[in-house]
């Protein structure tokens, strides 16, 4: 059976996915290769995002694959229905971290006046106005992540929920919250970073 790699898989596909992940964790290289093959389109779509590819080049695909393999080998959860969306999120965060280390786009963002038309244009070019994938919104609905969200500041929670659950653009979120687009960007970045760290700590624990 082919594994479905959409955000939500069917019950049968989730069971097949669980069997493959369990086998891979037990040292079955064939199962690991099968997972990498099934999820190759998802990994490639993340690695080829313009903001990642511009910063990391061809290394982006290698980083995506390594992050995926690490997740497969360390995963100890029980939710395999939403696992593909979780995998996309983890791969996205791995690429995000690598891009930060390159010191491109994100380092410069803090110096950009995001309230200006030029600043907004730069965010558009970097793909930030489009937000993260729809899978992030699905992930935010899970109990585990909702609990992690409660550890963020009120401002960070509001920004993340507006951008990813209510699908508001940064300008609209700023209007609703009565703050600048710069502050929306700041709360989004810090909130996602805290969320990522909490998920990683929970996963490693």
Give an account of the 3D structure.
- Residues 143-195 form the RNA polymerase sigma factor 70 region 4 type domain.
- One of its GO terms (molecular function) is DNA binding.
- This is Sigma-70 family RNA polymerase sigma factor.
- The chain has 13 helices and no strands.
- It has 205 residues and is mainly alpha-helical.
- 72% of the residues lie in helices and 0% in strands.
- It is globular.
- It has 2 domains: 7-104, Rna Polymerase Sigma Factor, Chain: A, CATH 1.10.1740; 112-205, Orthogonal Bundle (Arc Repressor Mutant, subunit A).
The rounded Rg comes to 18 Å
Count of spatially separate domains: 2
What's the order of the H and E elements?
Answer: HHHHHHHHHHHHH
Let me know the largest β-sheet: none
Please name the CATH topology of the largest domain: Rna Polymerase Sigma Factor, Chain: A
**Model regions low in confidence, pLDDT < 50 over at least 5 residues:** 1-8, 104-135
Overall geometric form: globular
Helix content: over 70%
Determine the strand fraction and express it as a percent band.
under 5%
E-strand count? 0
The whole-number mean of residue pLDDT values reads 74
Structural class: mainly alpha
> What would CATH call the class of the largest domain?
Mainly Alpha
Count of runs of 4 or more consecutive helical residues:
13
CATH architect. name of the largest domain: Orthogonal Bundle
Q: How far is the first residue's CA from the last residue's CA?
A: 32 Å
